[in-house]
Write a structure and sequence with these properties.
heterodimer, B: alpha+beta, six-stranded mixed β-sheet, 17% strand, Rnp2-like_sf (chain A), nucleus (chain A), RNase_P/MRP_POP5 (chain A)
């Protein structure tokens, strides 16, 4: 039997403002996605997609999502996702990280993505810590150093003269 | 795009959200689920087919998890136990009993089920036909050798009351018109209990439902006076067909309001086999064996002495007389029965005995000895005659004459009438087949007849003669009545000795060959006519076959003017008042010009219809009451070639046609739409009779048409048209007497 084949697209949403978009749901993304497909490719494309179009996962905190579509219509969905400007009257930018035949490989890629972002954060924190250390050290050294004054009396200075 | 990069990031939120996501993703990766079930996550070499409904096939580690999943949609719990426990012998017996509650099984059911086609009829599972082709062959077997049929589905009822009360009670019920050989229960022939009688009961006077039955009286010694027993309590045993059982019971309970009679079903009903054919004597003598060796030895000694004395001087008959006086009644009865049993060898056919005579024997279980195959009658007869001595021949000749003309009631005394003996026999099947086989294996010469080892284990058996046709005695035989529990052993022994087992279809055939009607297929006057095998099995099959075939390749019954091709529709005859005019014929044909489905509907609505049947000796003795609509049973024999088939239509010929037929001129007449012949009746069973060499059938004619066409009926000719054609076959008819 011939199987129906899908493609899963891993994507990342970035918002212009820093407001939390917890109200956005899977159904909301599906709605806006469908509209963008209709805008860009027409109703024929929607009919061809049909029931295969589906938003599988979405994390509002991180902005990662997985979208399913049929194999033949993958490019159209990808395009429509990148051309999505606005969601819930808020400007956003969607970038697609990975496309795969199974959700499992998309999840693997999502792990890599988060790891990389965590590493970046980690490195930034390290840099910050090092900077702080360096500054601390600096401040310490300044305090210990004192310059000699020529014009101070010698009486304070001890002379170790040998008797001739 | 760099616009959408956040300028400020809170580390805590950033890190927390990402760590949570990571955890979730890693947990999902570890569990390889998706849309599949837990059982599918196992590697392939651990998966089993029945894991979905049988937890024991799942590895132990995963059972708890899978039970939770199953809890949502639990599998259907099969009430069946494991196959091993189901197939244990105790459980097999229980399953047989469970299955047999709906449709009762006879004792020989399992034996029959392996060799015959079983059908559900009258609340029982009965053998309809054998797996072999025996329709034509059963005639040969019944004419020359012997044939056996299991009749134990006939119900036996017991009536206990004073003799006079019984006679008066049943005289109300019995049909006075039950044929020419009509005999009541109170007839002197049957009162002593030495002969079986048959008659017909009216079960419903309004609808005129009639059903045949057989009866046997209790034993009375032959010396006593019958009139002394008028006020003494006596018993009757009645055998009735199970289709009419409920009607009988309701009738008698309604009439027996004051407990005039005690009427109840016999406890531990005996089984009944009917053996038909001339060599039924041989078959029975091989199987039914009791200890007459002692008598044999004594007799041989006596005969030797007699021969010696004869050669020298006088005969010594006085010695035999004195010896009989000292013997007890039982021994004398035993002797008589042995002599009767032996003298049966002299008789050629069972038809030469008196009709319905009864013999009782105490017989040894045939399981305990091997039964040899019986020879056919002619061979046995010649062989027997050679080995007889002169004195024995004379004795047997005298006895055979006595038996043929007189049958004393001593021969019919038996222990089967006793309730307690029947109980003991049932409960005391201690000697099961296993034990018998075990003991036989220890002996040197197993399965040799010796009653000395088992003197107390004797089974009382009744043998009843059944009459056949009156011309040649075809269809005569014996009915064997056996107590409950021993049917299978006797059946197997009888079959091994040479009696060929048959089903209901073959039995029906043999009955029609004798010229008698077979209940319930030929009895219109009972509602069991619509429960018979011909209606339920044969006609349904034919109708289904006809509906499946293509229109162009099947018989067009509409064109031939046949409204009910698969089952006779007598009610349509009653509706049409006068069938003489052409207009009425057309009306009836056109009004009922329906498809086969409509005819089937008509038949099913008139399920409980019964029709009045009258018996007639001659045309002159016909009653002139035209108001009563009734049918007369007739037997039809074809004059020219042609086999008469079931559901054929009967017509009366015109004067010219009857003259042609009597003068043996050519007669080629075909049916057409504008036909002048009037429909008169139908055939219920038809066939080519091998005994007569021509077509033969049993049918019914309307009385009105007979009375009106008396002139035409002088030659007693009738035209027969089969359902599959338009040709008229000329035939002669006679009035049926049963």
């Amino acid at each position: 039997m011939v199987r129906v084949k899908f493609r899963y697209l891993l994507g990342h949403v970035r918002w212009q403002t820093t407001t939390k978009m917890n109200s956005l749901d899977i159904s909301g993304i599906y709605h806006y996605l469908k509209n963008s497909v209709k805008l860009n490719f027409g109703e024929y494309a929607i009919c061809r997609l049909g029931w295969t179009l589906n938003v599988k996962q979405y994390n509002p905190l991180t902005g990662l999502f997985i979208v399913r579509c049929s194999r033949s219509q993958m490019r159209q969905v990808w395009l429509s996702l990148t051309l999505l400007d606005e969601i819930n009257s808020q400007k956003c930018a969607i970038s697609i990280i990975h496309s795969a035949g199974t959700i499992r490989s998309c999840n693997l890629q999502a792990i890599k993505h988060t790891n990389s972002s965590l590493l970046v954060a980690k490195s930034l924190i390290q840099i910050k810590n090092e900077k702080e250390k360096y500054q601390k050290k600096k401040n310490k050294k300044k305090k210990t150093k004192k310059k000699k004054n020529k014009y101070l009396p010698n009486t304070l200075v001890k002379k170790n003269k040998s008797k001739k | 795009m760099s616009e959408y990069n956040p300028t400020l990031v809170s580390l805590n939120d950033f890190l927390n959200s990402r760590t949570k996501e990571l955890k979730k993703l890693r947990s999902e990766l570890n569990t390889r689920r998706g849309n599949c079930q837990l059982t599918q996550t196992l590697p392939k070499h651990l998966r089993r087919r029945t894991m979905s409904h049988d937890i024991h096939r799942v590895p132990y580690r995963m059972r708890k998890h899978i039970e939770k999943e199953m809890g949502k949609n639990p599998p259907r719990k099969s009430k069946l136990k494991s196959r091993q426990s189901r197939r244990k012998p105790n459980n097999m017996l229980k399953e047989y009993e469970r299955r047999s509650k709906k449709h009762v099984w006879l004792e020989t059911h399992i034996w029959h089920a392996k060799r015959m086609h079983m059908h559900r009829l009258f609340g029982y599972k009965l053998a309809y036909r054998t797996n072999e082709k025996l329709l034509r062959g059963c005639y040969k077997l019944a004419a020359r050798s012997s044939v056996i049929y299991d009749e134990s589905y006939y119900q036996c009822y017991e009536c206990v009351a004073k003799q006079q009360n019984l006679i008066t009670f049943f005289s109300k019920l019995i049909d006075n018109q039950s044929g020419i050989n009509f005999k009541t229960i109170g007839n002197r022939l049957f009162l002593r209990g030495n002969r079986q009688g048959s008659s017909r009961i009216i079960l419903d006077r309004e609808k005129k439902v009639v059903c045949p039955f057989r009866f046997i009286w209790d034993y009375i010694p032959f010396d006593s006076n019958i009139e002394e027993y008028k006020n003494k309590t006596r018993k009757i045993w009645i055998w009735i067909h199970p289709a009419c059982r409920t009607l009988l019971v309701d009738l008698i309970n309604s009439l027996n309001t004051k407990n005039y009679i005690s009427f109840h079903e016999l406890e531990n009903q005996p089984c009944r086999f009917s053996i038909i054919g001339p060599s039924s004597i041989n078959v029975l003598q091989k199987v039914l064996w009791f200890d007459f060796e002692k008598d044999n030895e004594k007799e041989k000694e006596k005969e030797k002495e007699k021969e010696i004395i004869k050669d020298n001087a006088m005969e010594t008959e006085t010695e035999t007389e004195t010896e009989t006086e000292t013997e007890t009644e039982e021994d004398s009865a035993l002797k008589k029965r042995t002599m009767v049993w032996k003298s049966l060898k002299k008789i050629n056919k069972p038809a030469s005995l008196l009709e319905g005579c009864i013999l009782s024997l105490d017989v040894i279980n045939p399981k305990e000895f091997t039964v040899k195959r019986a020879r056919e009658r002619e061979q046995e007869f010649q062989f027997h005659q050679k080995n007889l001595t002169r004195i024995e021949k004379d004795k047997y000749e005298k006895l055979s004459k006595k038996i043929q003309y007189k049958w004393s009631s001593e021969f019919s005394k038996s222990k089967l009438w006793d309730k307690q003996t029947r109980k003991k026999l049932l409960n005391g099947i201690e000697r099961t087949n296993k034990k018998i086989d075990e003991e036989a294996s220890k002996k040197l010469f197993p399965n040799v007849r010796s009653s000395k080892a088992y003197p107390n284990q004797k089974i009382p058996v009744l043998i009843v003669q059944t009459a056949g046709s009156k011309t040649l005695g075809f269809g005569s035989g014996f009915d064997v009545i056996i107590p409950k529990g021993y049917a299978k052993q006797f059946w197997v022994a009888l079959v091994h000795s040479g009696a060929v087992p048959i089903g209901m279809r073959e039995r029906h055939r043999i009955e029609t060959e004798t010229g008698r009607r077979f209940f319930p297929d030929d009895f219109i006057e009972a509602p069991s006519f619509y429960q018979s095998a011909t209606k339920l099995i044969v006609s349904e099959k034919e109708s289904q076959k006809w509906e499946k075939t293509h229109k162009g390749k099947r018989v067009n019954y509409k064109k031939f003017g046949i409204n009910s091709p698969f089952f006779p529709d007598f009610s349509s005859l009653l509706k049409s008042s006068t069938n003489h005019n052409n207009d009425n014929d057309k009306d009836t044909d056109n009004s009922n010009n329906n498809n086969s489905k409509n005819t089937n509907q008509i038949q099913t609505t008139q399920y409980t219809n019964t029709f009045n049947v009258e018996f007639v000796e001659n045309i002159n003795s016909l009653k002139t009451n035209i108001d009563s609509e009734s049918f007369i049973p007739i037997t039809i024999t074809a004059i020219q070639k042609g086999s008469l088939k079931r559901n054929a239509h009967l017509y009366f010929p015109t004067k010219d046609e009857s003259n042609k037929i009597t003068k043996k001129l050519k007669f080629n007449q075909k049916w057409s739409k504008n036909d002048n012949h009037c429909l008169v009746g139908f055939i219920t069973t038809g066939m080519f009779s091998l005994a007569r060499g021509c077509g033969f059938a049993i049918g019914f004619i309307r009385k009105k048409d007979l009375i009106k066409n008396q002139n035409a009926c002088k030659n007693s000719i009738v035209l027969v048209r089969n359902t599959n054609g338009a040709i008229f076959y000329p035939a002669k008819f006679e009035f049926c007497k049963n």
